[in-house]
Amino acid sequence: MSEALDRDYQICEEIGSGRFGTVFRCISRSTGDYFAVKSIVKSLVSGDSLDSQCLLTEPRTLHFLSPHPHIIQLHNLYEDETHLHMLIDLCSNQDLHDLIITNGVLSENEARVVFTQLMNAISHCHTNGIVHRDIKPDNILFDEENTIKLADFGSAEVVTEEEMVSGVVGTPYYVAPEVLLGREYGKKVDVWSAGVVLYIMLAGFPPFYGETAVNIFEAVLRGNLRFPAIVFQSVSASVKDLLRRMLCKDVSRRFSAEQVLTHPWVANVADLT
């Protein structure tokens, strides 16, 4: 561990690991507050590779977007010869994907709470010229108060109203059609992905399904959005309307993040009919 990190924080235990490093729970030696430290092995993400770019993108983006109540906060950055150490918010070990797997679908009210927090985070990103590009349940974490924190900004990209980005990134079920078609795209790819997340929270399965990545992409490109009665019969017409506006193949007609936040299902808490 970095000498500076060890001076400021006591490492408690490992709480997660991935392809490029390990996440530890730690405690501040001066305040007693708990944090997470994400230690990334630099040799695994060296050079000009996409992984190396992601390593540099995430801390820069988090620093730029902080603080926001629904975005994981970067508190400090430490570096030694072998590792980059990102000091971030400590969240529970359960993300939205785990929650759905463990407890099943969310009620409409529960889904709206999570979704509204998510869209506030996405709107903050877009207002600041950032497109996340990998919105999915695995990247939606919960803190000790069950507030969501949007995480994993390794694929994030800077974009303006006039500029577009390119490149196929993201996870198959959540990738917008324009990305799959190889077109340049903008902020509304995040709105599409968030729409898929909302659908999954309510249904327990994605709106466009396939056994393989190719099958999934074909289903996404067909864009045949359905609401099976066995699942959606008790779901309000208002949220179905919102899903149609988010999962719209025509980018010009798809809602922006700001429009999503002003939709009655989100803006009017009493509207569940």
Structure in words:
The protein has 273 residues and is α+β, with helices and mostly antiparallel strands. The protein folds into two domains: 3-88, 2-Layer Sandwich (Phosphorylase Kinase, domain 1), CATH 3.30.200; 96-267, Transferase(Phosphotransferase), domain 1 (Orthogonal Bundle). The protein contains eleven helices and nine strands. The chain has helices at 3-8, 50-65, 96-103, 108-127, 177-180, 188-203, 213-222, 229-232, 237-246, 257-262, 264-267; strands at 9-17, 21-28, 34-41, 74-79, 83-88, 130-131, 140-142, 148-150, 157-158. A five-stranded antiparallel sheet has the order 1-2-3-5-4. Strands 6-9 form a two-stranded antiparallel sheet. Strand 1 (9-17) and strand 2 (21-28) form a beta hairpin. Helix 4 packs antiparallel against helix 6 (188-203). The chain is globular. The termini are far apart. The model has no long low-confidence stretch (mean pLDDT 88).
Summarize the structure.
Keywords: ATP-binding, Kinase, Nucleotide-binding, Serine/threonine-protein kinase, Transferase. With 273 residues, the chain is α+β, with helices and mostly antiparallel strands. The protein contains eleven helices and nine strands.
